[in-house]
Amino acid sequence: MKKLLLLLFLSTFLFSCVITRGKDGEPGKPGKNGSDTASSTIFDQELATKLGADQYGMKPYVIVMLTTGSAKVEDKTKMGELMKGHLANIRKLSDEGKIVVAGPFLEKNKEDYRGMFIFNTQSKEEAEQWVKTDPAVQAGVFSYEILPWYGSAALPMYLKHHKGIAKENP
To answer: Residue 111 — left, alpha, or beta (φ > 0 → left; ψ -120 to 50 → alpha)?
Structure first.
């Protein structure tokens, strides 16, 4: 009988821990990391139009995968200049709203991808014109592959927040 009462008590205790998920134990109110589906974000037509979103909040982009090019630059000074020009070109394209994501891959991969750009265009031809402005691409240090991609139309919005969290720019 004691075991049955203990089991009943533990079950009730554990069940109450699972059910109580509100702030400070208040049922129905989400805590810090909870969500309240009743107060979900309301659709913003003006923002959707400004960002070029379709009915799903998505839009086409072009991804450019940078690969190792055919040129081998042995001079470290020259390679340093090319990389400075590469980074300056990324900043320029970002400031112009043409590029929304750019960055290197952190480890080697079988495809030999070195970095990636996501361009704010659906035109592969336009993206190719923009990638060809990169001094490292012009010098043959990088080659590239171009792929159409479909993603969140809100993607460009993260850039304004990035500037607020970066202490330095390369």
So the answer is: alpha
Percent of the chain with pLDDT over 70: 76
The alpha carbon torsion through 38, 32, 41, 151 (nearest 10 deg) reads: -130
Q: Answer whether 146's CB lies under 8 Å from 128's CB.
A: yes
CA–CA separation, 48 and 42 (whole Å): 12
Yes or no: say if 136 and 82 are a contact pair by the CB < 8 Å rule. yes
End-to-end Cα spacing for the chain? 71
Q: How many CB atoms lie within 10 A of CB 134?
A: 24
d(CA 159, CA 170): 15
Chain CA centroid to CA 150, Å: 13
Amino acid at 61: Y
d(C-alpha 119, C-alpha 170), whole Å: 20
Give the confidence band of 29 by pLDDT, cuts at 50, 70, 90.
low
Of the chain, the percentage scoring pLDDT greater than 90 comes to 66
Tokens of 100: 């929304």
* 141 φ, ψ (degrees, to nearest 5): -70, -40
Q: What is the mean pLDDT of the chain?
A: 83
